Each structure stands twice: as C-alpha cells, then as structure tokens.
Amino acid sequence: MNQVQLISSGVVLLTVVGIAYGGTFLLRVVGGGVPVNELQRSYFRAGHAHAGVLVILGLVVRLLLDEPTVPDWSRVMGDLVLLAAILMPAGFFLSVIGRDPSGPNRLRILIRLGATALVIGLVAAGAGLIVGGTAL
Fold this sequence. Notes:
Keywords: Membrane, Transmembrane, Transmembrane helix
Largest sheet: none
Organism: Nocardiopsis codii
Protein name: Integral membrane protein
Oligomer: single chain
Order of helices and strands: HHHHH
C-alpha cells in the first residue's frame, strides 16, 4: 500500500468508532427516546447497517487488491466501495431529516449513486483480482 492508502485506511478505521457511536443514537430511536416516524426509523436502521458493512467491505477490498499483479485500474476503481460507504448511508440519513416526513426527499439520489459506486467498485475489484491471479 502507498502512503495515501495507508493514511486513508487509518481514517476509515477511525470512522468505525463514529459508526459504533451512531449505534447509540439508533438504540435511542428504537427505544422511543428520539421522536421519529416509521419511515425515519427504517431509513436510520438501513443507513447505520450500510455504513458498518460497507466500511469493512471497502477495507477488505483494498487489502485484497494490494497484490503486485493486480492492475492499477482495479485498485483505483476498488476504492469506489469506500465511496459507497459514504454515499449510501448519507442518502439514508439525509433523505428523511425533518419532522415527520411522509417520504424521502431528493437526497435519496445518494443511495442510488452509492449503489452504483458499490457495483462498479466490486466488479472492477473482482475483475482485477482475476487478472492479477492469471498473471501469477
């Protein structure tokens, strides 16, 4: 891994602390301590789950791609998984902010953008691993 990847991976690991702390907010939501409607409750749960899973998945992808035979394009595109870890949870949380929304707002586009980044990142990572594996 290069210097930028090492530093950014450290920063990403530190975000897991924030995600864990966000779990305490989710517990207050589920326990009724924070007034939200069912839409918000569902979106908050989805946002928290996606954040945790995608951050760890993004770091695993980064580690897998750290082989000399893996093409550079795959490493760059594989980091889209980490971008998805930002976009999707942000879309879930930000699209239902406010008092008693009846539906998600326009920021729900972040969910789709994150899903697109996730798919492209995973396909590029998988293809790069296959290419790298055949080069051994």
